[in-house]
Amino acid sequence: MKHALRNPLALIGFSIIAAILLLALIAPWIAPYDPNAINVKAILLAPETNHWMGTDGLGRDVLSRMLYGGRISLLVGFVAVGIATLIGIVLGAVAGFYRGWVDTVIMRTVDVMLSIPTFFLILAVIAFLTPSIWNIMIVIGLTSWMGVTRLVRAEFLSLRNREFVLAAQALGAKDARLIFTHLLPNSLTPIIVSSILGIASAVLVESGLSFLGLGVQAPQASWGNILTDGKEYIQFAWWLSLFPGLAILLTVLGYNLLGDGLRDAYNPRSNQN
Amino acid sequence: MLKYLLKRFFWMIPLLVGISLISFMIMHLAPGDITSSEASFNPKASEESRQKLRELYSLDKPVIVQYSLWMKRMATLNFGTSFASHQRPVFWQTKDKDGNVTLGMIQEALPITLLINVLSLILIIAIALPLGVVSALKQNQLADRVITLFVFIGFAIPGFWLALMLMYWTGVQHNWLPISGLQSLGHEHLHWLGKTLDTLKHLALPVFISAITGLAGIALFVRNGMLEVLHQDYITTARSKGLNEHRVIYGHALRNALLPLITIFGLSIPGLIGGSVIAESIFAIPGMGKLFYDAVLMRDFPVIMGILTIGALLTLIGNLVADVAYAWADPRVRRGVMQ
Amino acid sequence: MVKWLHLRNLLQVMTWVVLTALMVGCGDSTSNKSIHKIDYSKDYPANSGGTLIDAMTGEPSGLIAMIAGESAASAIAGNIFNSLLKYDKNLELTGELAKSWEISADQRTITFHLKPDLKWADNTPLTSDDVLFTWQKVTDEKTRTPYGSDFKLVTLAETPDANTFRVTYKAPYAPALDTWAGLHILPKHLLKDQDINTTAFARNPVGSHYYKLEQWKNGQYLKLTRNVNATQGQAKIDHLLSRIIPDKAAQFLELSADNIDSMGLNPIQYARIFPARPELNKNIALYKELGNSYTYLGFNLKRKPFDDIRVRQAINYAINKQEIIDGVLLGLGEPVASPYKPGTRWSNPALKPYPYDPAKAKALLKAAGYEDHDGDGIIDKDGKPFSFEILTNQNKEREMTGVLIQRRLKEVGIDANIRVLEWASFLGRFIKPKEFDVVVLGWSLSLDPDQYSIWHSSQQAPGQFNFISYSNPRVDKLLEAGRLELNPDKRMKIYHEFSAILLEDSPIVFLSAGYGLSAIHKRVQGISNPAPPAGIGHNTYEWNIPQAYARSEMSEH
């Protein structure tokens, strides 16, 4: 990690994420207004002293909505990736460790899932269920575990034959012990990298779903739905598009820079010069 | 090799059946069907007529029965007709007794999506390849950082936001490009060159948006692949032999780093036919993405199943082709030497 | 090796060349820029010719309205086909294909006399045979239409001669005339050997109205051209082009760039954006007309405490309807107190909506046993707090309305949360099985006053429209009587009484009727402003585009 932070880009990424996470955490304390407080006398105001980021079509303060929306957008990212990673670790570990027909079945399932364009799948499932925040998190999670599975499986396959594992096996260690104490900890970095990148994707997917009307629903704010609400006034109420757009951009950028930096640091080959 | 190919083909059938079954089940998870659209919740439309419609489309039968009806039709490669679009054929055109040809829905939408995706892929490679190479060669220097930053920004920017801003800038403020649609209004009267230019103008923004988001993946891939290869022993050998640096990079390193790119192509086949729902909606392009989205909202089952099936088929074939191409291109595999 | 280098460079060069060519080659700016310099305030004499370009978000599934059903289909088909009757600018029934009609003494038979020398677009004569054929089709069991039920009430349909069409009903059916104003007459000579459900005619129709279909590019646009054989005379504009642009933001950009002539606006665009943009106002004019639907808050009358009239009325008093009109519609709407279009004869002028009166609301709630006994800010009864869910579908305005209602209810101590649902789920999981507390939805304001299917107690089965389970014997009798009375003045009295009872009972809270808002380029002249009750669309055949303002075909993108 320290090594990664020597990379200026990763450092930038880390700072961005830290700043955004901090703002999201303290949102209830610093938001100047209730994000759902409608004020029909203050509709579509440009940024000014009372409303630093202006107001939306119902007179709600955009800054407050952005702060609370950040919590939601990030929450979607974390939970969705959490689900995906959990499934991925379990399936990947089992496939990589036991191999044989279990491996085949799991990898064929991965192939099946990958043969349907992900966004189509998410779209279809969300449209069929009610687009609540939990459904979105679960559905994104259930459609992005494939990458993690492949990653974990690949790690396990390569680590399996290393000396320390063989030694532990020779000493009579049980499977579970091998997996949890030896294999998994050493596979951690690619999993972390993949999770970080996954959070970025999840935030983007949520904004895409909002555009189609299937994202986080009103009155809850999310960056995706603030951006979507403002799209018809993009020439006029630029603040409704600029701030959430920038927020999404910076967040996704931050996670990507950090994740990429970590990956570079982890990969020994690419650092020889 | 032949045995391998046969085995793969053989596996495709159960996989396709599995995919279609899962898709069918998911569709029927949800409440509602074609008769429950908002438009039909209209006091002038009676419940009995909606019920009649359901019977006509076999929607009142148990899911398994509906699935077997669909499978039976598929066995004769009949993808059925759309529920929502006045019986338009889902896949290929049909001719009625008077000789009127009705074009199939996928038949019309697929070429458009393919065109956008292929153009986008070409653009991505044209930009990502040199960027990735430069990034690898100047690893950790300013050029590398700037390129990485640029490429990530492209990925991070929400597509529809960028699309709207570009549409405003190029179409409203200046009259450089059309704002939406696929063709201009007098398109048929143009010379073939004019037609091509007209279509390209309309596709410029969608292709650009699509490319800018895909750039990051490929550029990084090329960069990491190059780095990996550059540190291999045979490169050091080539250098110590006194070979021209250019030859080392492009002749040896790049070629080998590009091999995995073939796998990437194979993996991006489902993306090729899955047009971007968002871009097509914003730019009013009647491609596969919009077709799928509309079908999902209207619960137009034959169309949904048709698209998912074709998607799955193309993916499986794409993966197969990619694996075979890789195996052929990589001499190590070709000669059967295991790494 | 070296070859690689060349190939890569070549690709790069090609890309840049293409991109540059696109940028440069699109310098059509000259023609469009000159249009921007035109002064559209000059008045020109009515002129024939030109193309009107508008935008649709959806594409018709077919152009046979009885089968297609969605609004995009009816909008386009409405330019191609005629009905026997139509509504004039004051929303009174008048003849379209029929020049006159008589109702028999027993009120069961209607005789329509067609205008002489009517023709189809392909020059074939249009006769009562076509009308009979259309009726047979809409009542045919095999036709996949949801609109057959009204027409099945006809027991006998006859064509005594080529210009006369007579229908006899089992019992007098007052909404009949309205149904004949909505049925597009189809050509028998082209459809008699066709299966109407699958015929290619739906994509290549032949009608009798002002326009005929010239071209339909799937997913892109539909182009209509003036029909020289039109039964109602000649329209002034030569071509109508409807571009399919699903995204409203993209439509607005196209309007701003003068690529389309008209689009529907939302209240914010109408009231906030246009006034702030002089460059838009120079070329584009705004129009408003009272729309055709109303939004309401509906109670599930089978659930406590919504079966208590005091609770319903209390909620009615607690909601500030003007606030909803001002906030959601930016003032571009009107309050309604009955399910009829204000300004028409069916709307009872004596009725006024419940005023905003939270004190009265609290008093009524208290009378019903609801008070804040435990001091938590939420009123309760028998230990249970008054808390429920408001359901609505994915419609921005309804969501905003829900939020405003939620806030006002909170002020009187009612805890309501809002849930937004996708339509099919909403219908299938909540409305049909009546698993809801309260909904925010909309109905259309009828032109025919019959409201039987929504309010009669016999219409409560799953899938039918009285899903709130309203049952009032007096209302039932009035609705039944209204269907039998063909005399408009007597009918009016019946429905005025019906509306009064409905308002008193408050099974729903009428919230607002929004205006239809449009932006139409100033090159289109002849539009009535202010709009008559039928809306600005009543005389589209008179709209015209002066030569000086017409676009040149090829500069359109």
Percent of residues in helices of chain A: over 70%
The first-to-last residue Cα distance of chain C is 44 Å
Number of strands of chain A: 0
Structural category of chain C: alpha+beta
Estimate the global geometry of chain C from the Cα principal axes: globular
**Annotation field: number of helices of chain C:** 18
- Mind telling me the C-alpha Rg of chain A? 22 Å
Count of alpha/pi helices of chain A: 11
- Helical content class of chain C: 25-40%
How does this model look, in words?
The complex is a heterotrimer of chains A (273), B (339) and C (557). Chain A is mostly helical and 273 residues long. Chain A is built from eleven helices and no strands. The mean pLDDT of chain A is 84. In chain B, strands 1-2 form a two-stranded antiparallel ribbon. The longest helix of chain B is centred in the middle third of the chain and has 39 residues, at 192-230. Chain B is globular. Helices cover 32% and strands 21% of the residues of chain C. Chains B and C meet through helix 2, helix 4, helix 6, helix 7 and helix 9 of B and helix 1, helix 2, strand 10, helix 8 and helix 15 of C.
Sum this structure up briefly.
The complex is a heterotrimer of chains A (273), B (339) and C (557). By secondary structure, chain A is mostly helical. Chain A is built from 11 helices and no strands.
Compile the SSE list and pairings.
The complex is a heterotrimer of chains A (273), B (339) and C (557).
Chain A lengths: L1 H4 L2 H23 L31 H37 L1 H15 L3 H11 L4 H11 L1 H16 L2 H8 L4 H37 L11 H7 L8 H29 L7
Helix pairs in contact in A: 2-3, 2-11, 3-4, 3-6, 3-7, 3-9, 5-6, 7-9, 8-9, 9-10, 9-11, 10-11
Chain B lengths: L1 H28 L17 H10 L6 H13 L18 E2 L5 E2 L2 H33 L4 H15 L2 H15 L18 H39 L2 H8 L4 H23 L1 H5 L3 H7 L4 H11 L2 H29 L1 H4 L5
Antiparallel strand pairs in B: 1-2
Helix pairs in contact in B: 1-13, 4-5, 4-7, 5-7, 6-7, 6-11, 7-9, 9-13, 11-12, 12-13
Chain C lengths: L1 H24 L3 H8 L14 E6 L8 H4 L2 H10 L4 E3 L5 E3 L2 E6 L5 E6 L13 H12 L14 E8 L2 E6 L6 H5 L7 H4 L19 E7 L3 E6 L12 E6 L3 H9 L5 E4 L1 H10 L1 H6 E7 L2 E7 L9 H10 L2 H8 L4 E2 L23 H10 L12 E2 L2 E2 L1 E7 L2 H16 L3 E7 L1 H9 L6 E7 L7 H4 L17 H12 L3 H18 L2 E14 L36
Parallel strand pairs in C: 1-10, 17-18, 17-19
Antiparallel strand pairs in C: 2-3, 4-5, 5-7, 6-7, 8-9, 9-10, 11-20, 12-20, 13-19, 13-20, 14-20, 15-16
Helix pairs in contact in C: 11-13, 12-14, 17-18
